[in-house]
C-alpha cells in the first residue's frame, strides 16, 4: 500500500510542486493550507509522513509540530520541515519542536523523495 | 510544468495584492503584528516559488525585500512613513519583476537598483548592487539560496553512478531518547544504510534494564554496523543528517581495502560483535521472555503508538534489528475508516477553482430553466387548474427551488470589488508622482460583491476616473495650502449596495469642475451653441461629450485618447449610469450605479399600446392611478402630474417609443413613479400593469443593435418576447424633446 504524505504549506505553488513530486514517486498526498488546517486534517486521518512549511498564517510550522507531537495518535509520525534558507536557527527551533528532518527549498524532486524515504523507510 | 508556472504566477498576483494591502494597512495605522507577518509571508512565498523556477532577478530582489520586512517583523526596524514609502515602491518593483518573469520584457535596471539600494539602506546591509556582482553575493552571507530549476520527472538524474573503489566503514550508532521523540527511527536509518551496500549489523542490548525499570521513552540500544560500499563517507554521514546531535555516531572508514586488510578488519569486527553479543544473551533473553504480553500492556497503558516501536522490546537479537515489522502501528490503521467522514473538519475555508465557462454554461441553463418554469406556471393558470391543487403546489415549490438555484449560481459569479480596488493604490502613487501632487486614497466597501463580468469591466473606467480625479480634480499642494486646504488631496473610492444595485463613488476634495471653462471649451469646439441656457448640472455633463477634453495639453496621465465619453459608454454597456456632483472649491463626486448581475432583473410587466414591456423594478418608486384633476398641461405636449405638493413630469411611454402619436387620457392608464439619473423623479404613463416577475435578460444589442429607450429583451412565460425599458434614456429623451431628436444628452449617450 502506498504511503500517505500530508503537506502543509500556505503557498499553492509549493503545495502543487510537492504534490507532483510525491505523486510521481507513488505517494498518496493530503494537503493543508496552514498549521491549523493541518491539525484539522489530522483529526480524521493519519499520515505516514508530514511535510510542513514554517511561515504560515494562523498556526506556523513550529506550533503545528508541537501540537502534532502532543497528540498520541500522531506523535510517532515523522515530520519534515521546509526551510527556505539553510537557516541553522530555524532548523534548531524546528528540531526542538519535534521535527524529524528538513528539506531545503527550492528542493529537487529526487532530494525530496529521498528525505521522505529517509524518515519513513 | 506550464500548469505549475501558471499556478505560481496566479499566486504571485494574490501575494502582491496581499503585500500592497498589508503595507497600506500598516500605513493607515494598522498595528496588528499579523499584518506584518502576512506581508512578510507574501514576499517570502514569491521568493520561494521564484527560486524553484530559477527566476534569479526575482529571487534576488525578493530576498533583499524580505530581509527588511523581517527586521520590521522582529521589531528591529520601525515602520515609519519613510520606510513604508520605500517598501511600497519596492512592492511596485517586485510586481513588475513578476510580470516580466511571466510575460517577458525587462524592468528598468536603474529602478531595481534604486529600490534595492533603498531597501538595503534600511536593513543596514551593504547596498547590494543589482546585477549580481560577485562581491554582492559574498557579502550577503545568509543568501544561501541556490535556485534549482525543477524538471519533472527527473528522478534518473541523481541516479547513483557506481564508483570504482570499495570503501568499508565501521559505524557505531547510539541514539539518544531525543531521536525517538522527534519520530526518527533507527530501523529506517539502518535500512537506508543497507541501500548503500553490503552491511552487517550488531545490536548492543547491554543497557536494556529490567522491565520494571524500563522507561518507555528511554533509549537503550546501540548498533555497530559494518558497511561495504562504493559510496563515500559523506554519503554515509548524509543518512544520519537528521539525527546529528540526537545520537552518538562514529564513522571510521578505510578506502579501497585490500583483501588482507579486509580479513583483518573482518576478524576484528567479529571479535567486537562477539564481545557485544556474548554477555547480552542472558540479560536479553530474560527480558524478552516477558516482553510480548507485558510490553503490549504497557503500550496500551501509555495509549501511545510510538513507545512500542521506540522501546527495545521487538529486538530479539542483533540481526533481527533490521527487519522488524512495518513501523505503522495498528492504532493508526484503525483510524483510517473514520478518515473520509472526518474530512468535514477540513471544511474551514475550502475553495475550488472552476473554469468560468462552466459557470456561465450553468448560468445560461438556469436562465432557460427560469423561463421554462414561468411558462409552466402560465400554462397551469391558463388551464384553469385550481391554485390549491397538488399540481399547483408542486409547481410553487418548483418555482422556489428554481429561484434558489438561480441565486446560488449568481452567488458563484459574485466577487468582492476588492480585486479592482486594490489595483488603485499603485495607480494613485504613480499619477501622484507624475503630477507632483500629494494624494491619499481611501477605499471603502471593498467587500461589496458584484458579478465578475461587472468587476472586470469596471477596471478601465475606474482607472480613468481616478486618473482624472488626481490630474484634473486635485490642485497642486501649494495651491491647496494657499486655499487653506491640507496639502495632501483626498480621493475616496467607495462601494455600497443600494436597492439592488452597486453604487461606486469616486470623490475628490479638489477644486471642483471649473464650469466657465468647461462651457467655454464646449462652445469653442462647437459642442453647444453660444449663449445656450444650461444649468450647472448640464454644464457638468458636458464633459461626457465625445471629443471633450479639458486638459490644455494632452498630458501623459489622463490624455490617452479616451475621454469621459468612453467611460460613460462602457458603464452604460453594463446597464449602469454615471452621474456627477461638483461644488467649486470643494471637489467632485462621480457616482457609478451598476446592476449586481447581468443575467436577470426583477421587473414590472406592463402593457403599452399592443406591446408588452418590462420596467426594471429597481427604478420604480411607486405606482399610482392618475386622477383627471392631477394632470396639468405644461406648454406643448408636456404634462405634469401633481403628487403630494409636488409636480413631476408625466411621460407617455407609448408616445416616447413611437407606438402611438395621439395623446391618451391619463385617467385610463397607470403612472409609474420612477427615479432616474441624479435622483430626479418622473412619472411614466403606461396602459396597464400585468404583474411583477423576474426576467432573464437577453441582450438586444448582440442580436439586433442598440435601440434608444430599450435596454434589453426577455422571453416571458407565454413565449412572447418583451422589451426591457431603459428608464433613464426614456426620461432623458422626454426631457429633451423626444428620443429621436438630435439633442445634447442623446449625443452624450
What features would you describe in this structure?
The complex is a heterodimer of chains A (121) and B (749). Chain A is α/β, with parallel strands linked by helices. Chain A has one domain (4-108): Response regulator (Rossmann fold). Chain A is built from 5 helices and 5 strands, in the order βαβαβαβαβα. A 5-stranded parallel beta sheet of chain A has the order 2-1-3-4-5, sandwiched between helices. Chain B has 5 domains: 2-139, HPT domain (Four Helix Bundle (Hemerythrin (Met), subunit A), Up-down Bundle); 160-328, Alpha-Beta Plaits (2-Layer Sandwich), CATH 3.30.70; 356-415; 417-595, Heat Shock Protein 90, CATH 3.30.565.10; 600-748, SH3 Domains (SH3 type barrels). Chain B is built from 27 helices and 22 strands. Chains A and B meet through helix 1, helix 2 and helix 5 of A and helix 1, helix 2, helix 8, helix 12 and helix 13 of B.
The outline of chain B comes out as elongated
Which overall shape of chain A is indicated by the principal axes computed on the Cα atoms? globular
Mean pLDDT of chain B: 76
Largest sheet of chain A: 5 strands, parallel
Low-confidence runs of chain B = 126-163, 280-299, 301-348, 551-561, 740-749
SSE class of chain A? alpha/beta
Number of strands of chain A: 5
Biggest interface, chains and residues, is: A-B, 56 and 72 residues
* Distance between the ends of chain B: 48 Å
Strand portion of chain B, in percent?
15-25%
- So how many helices of chain A? 5
How are strands sequenced across the largest beta sheet of chain B?
14-18-19-17-16-15
**Into how many domains do the coordinates of chain A divide?**
1
CATH topology of the largest domain in chain B: Heat Shock Protein 90
- What's the architecture of the largest domain in chain B, going by CATH? 2-Layer Sandwich
Compute the number of structural domains of chain B: 5
**What is the CATH class name of the largest domain in chain B?**
Alpha Beta
CATH A-level architecture of chain A: 3-Layer(aba) Sandwich
Amino acid at each position: 500500500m502506498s504511503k500517505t504524505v500530508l503537506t502543509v504549506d500556505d503557498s499553492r505553488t509549493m503545495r502543487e510542486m510537492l504534490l507532483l513530486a510525491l505523486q510521481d514517486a507513488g505517494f498518496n498526498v493530503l494537503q493543508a493550507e496552514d498549521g491549523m488546517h493541518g491539525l484539522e486534517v489530522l483529526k480524521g486521518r493519519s499520515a505516514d509522513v508530514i511535510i510542513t512549511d514554517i511561515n504560515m498564517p494562523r498556526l506556523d510550522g513550529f506550533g503545528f509540530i508541537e501540537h502534532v507531537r502532543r497528540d498520541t495518535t500522531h506523535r510517532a509520525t515523522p515530520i519534515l520541515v521546509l526551510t527556505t534558507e539553510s537557516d541553522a536557527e530555524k532548523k534548531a527551533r524546528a528540531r526542538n519542536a519535534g521535527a524529524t528532518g528538513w528539506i531545503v527549498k527550492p528542493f529537487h524532486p529526487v532530494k525530496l523523495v529521498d528525505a521522505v524515504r529517509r524518515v519513513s523507510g | 510544468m506550464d500548469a505549475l508556472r501558471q499556478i505560481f504566477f496566479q499566486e504571485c498576483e494574490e501575494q502582491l495584492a496581499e503585500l500592497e494591502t498589508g503595507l497600506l494597512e500598516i500605513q493607515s495605522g494598522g498595528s496588528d503584528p499579523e499584518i506584518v507577518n502576512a506581508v512578510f509571508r507574501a514576499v517570502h512565498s514569491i521568493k520561494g516559488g521564484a527560486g524553484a523556477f530559477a527566476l534569479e532577478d526575482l529571487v534576488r530582489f525578493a530576498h533583499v525585500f524580505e530581509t527588511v520586512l523581517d527586521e520590521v517583523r522582529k521589531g528591529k526596524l520601525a515602520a515609519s512613513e519613510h520606510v513604508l514609502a520605500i517598501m511600497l515602491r519596492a512592492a511596485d518593483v517586485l510586481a513588475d519583476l513578476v510580470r516580466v518573469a511571466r510575460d517577458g520584457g525587462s524592468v528598468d535596471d536603474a529602478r531595481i537598483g534604486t529600490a534595492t539600494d533603498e531597501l538595503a539602506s534600511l536593513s543596514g546591509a551593504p547596498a547590494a548592487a543589482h546585477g549580481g556582482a560577485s562581491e554582492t553575493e559574498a557579502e550577503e552571507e545568509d543568501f544561501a539560496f541556490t535556485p534549482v530549476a525543477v524538471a519533472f520527472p527527473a528522478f534518473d538524474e541523481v541516479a547513483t553512478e557506481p564508483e570504482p573503489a570499495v570503501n568499508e566503514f565501521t559505524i557505531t550508532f547510539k541514539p539518544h531518547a531525543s531521536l525517538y521523540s522527534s519520530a526518527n527511527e533507527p530501523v529506517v536509518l539502518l535500512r537506508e544504510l543497507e541501500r548503500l551496500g553490503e552491511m552487517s549489523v550488531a545490536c548492543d542490548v547491554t543497557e536494556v534494564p529490567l522491565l520494571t525499570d524500563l522507561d518507555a521513552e528511554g533509549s537503550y540500544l546501540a548498533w555497530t554496523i559494518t558497511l561495504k560500499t562504493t559510496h563515500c563517507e559523506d554519503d554515509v554521514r548524509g543518512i544520519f543528517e537528521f539525527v546529528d546531535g540526537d545520537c552518538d555516531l562514529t564513522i571510521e572508514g578505510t578506502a579501497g581495502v585490500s583483501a588482507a586488510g579486509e580479513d583483518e578488519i573482518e576478524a576484528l569486527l567479529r571479535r567486537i560483535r562477539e564481545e557485544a553479543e556474548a554477555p547480552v544473551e542472558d540479560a536479553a533473553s530474560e527480558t524478552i521472555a516477558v516482553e510480548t504480553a507485558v510490553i503490549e500492556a504497557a503500550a496500551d497503558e501509555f495509549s501511545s503508538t510510538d513507545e512500542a516501536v521506540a522501546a527495545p522490546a521487538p529486538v530479539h537479537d542483533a540481526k533481527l534489528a533490521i527487519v522488524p515489522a512495518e513501523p505503522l502501528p495498528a492504532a493508526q490503521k484503525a483510524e483510517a475508516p473514520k478518515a473520509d467522514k472526518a474530512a468535514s473538519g477540513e471544511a474551514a475555508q475550502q475553495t475550488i477553482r472552476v473554469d468560468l465557462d462552466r459557470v456561465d454554461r450553468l448560468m445560461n441553463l438556469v436562465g432557460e430553466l427560469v423561463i421554462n418554469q414561468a411558462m409552466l406556471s402560465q400554462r397551469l393558470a391558463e388551464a384553469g387548474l385550481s391554485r390549491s391543487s397538488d399540481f399547483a403546489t408542486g409547481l410553487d415549490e418548483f418555482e422556489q427551488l428554481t429561484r434558489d438555484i438561480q441565486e446560488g449560481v449568481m452567488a458563484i459569479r459574485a466577487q468582492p470589488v476588492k480585486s479592482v480596488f486594490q489595483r488603485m493604490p499603485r495607480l494613485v502613487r504613480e499619477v501622484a508622482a507624475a503630477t507632483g501632487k500629494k494624494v491619499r486614497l481611501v477605499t471603502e466597501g471593498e467587500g461589496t460583491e458584484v458579478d465578475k463580468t461587472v468587476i472586470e469591466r469596471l477596471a478601465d473606467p475606474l482607472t480613468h476616473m481616478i486618473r482624472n480625479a488626481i490630474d484634473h480634480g486635485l490642485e497642486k499642494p501649494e495651491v491647496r495650502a494657499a486655499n487653506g486646504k491640507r496639502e495632501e488631496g483626498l480621493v475616496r473610492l467607495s462601494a455600497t449596495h443600494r436597492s439592488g444595485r452597486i453604487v461606486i463613488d469616486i470623490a475628490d476634495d479638489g477644486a471642483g469642475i471649473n464650469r466657465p471653462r468647461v462651457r467655454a471649451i464646449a462652445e469653442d469646439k462647437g459642442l453647444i451653441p453660444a449663449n445656450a441656457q444650461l444649468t450647472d448640472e448640464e454644464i457638468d455633463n458636458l464633459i461626457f461629450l465625445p471629443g471633450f477634453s479639458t486638459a490644455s495639453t494632452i498630458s501623459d496621465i489622463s490624455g490617452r485618447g479616451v475621454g469621459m465619453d468612453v467611460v460613460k459608454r462602457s458603464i452604460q454597456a453594463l446597464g449602469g449610469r454615471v452621474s456627477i456632483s461638483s461644488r467649486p472649491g470643494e471637489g467632485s463626486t462621480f457616482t457609478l450605479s451598476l446592476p449586481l448581475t447581468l443575467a436577470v432583473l426583477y421587473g414590472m410587466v406592463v402593457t403599452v399600446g399592443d406591446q408588452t414591456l418590462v420596467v426594471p423594478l429597481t427604478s420604480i418608486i411607486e405606482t399610482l392611478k392618475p386622477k383627471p384633476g392631477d394632470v396639468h398641461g405644461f406648454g406643448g405636449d408636456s404634462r405634469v402630474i401633481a403628487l403630494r405638493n409636488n409636480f413631476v413630469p408625466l411621460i407617455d411611454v407609448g408616445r416616447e417609443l413611437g407606438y402611438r402619436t395621439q395623446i391618451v387620457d391619463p385617467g385610463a392608464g397607470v403612472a409609474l413613479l420612477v427615479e432616474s439619473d441624479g435622483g430626479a423623479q418622473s412619472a411614466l404613463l403606461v396602459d396597464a400593469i400585468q404583474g411583477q416577475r423576474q426576467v432573464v435578460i437577453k441582450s438586444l444589442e448582440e442580436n439586433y443593435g442598440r435601440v434608444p429607450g430599450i435596454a434589453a429583451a426577455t422571453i416571458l412565460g407565454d413565449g412572447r418576447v418583451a422589451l426591457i425599458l431603459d428608464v433613464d434614456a426614456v426620461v432623458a429623451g422626454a426631457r429633451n424633446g423626444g428620443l429621436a431628436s438630435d439633442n445634447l444628452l442623446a449625443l452624450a449617450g
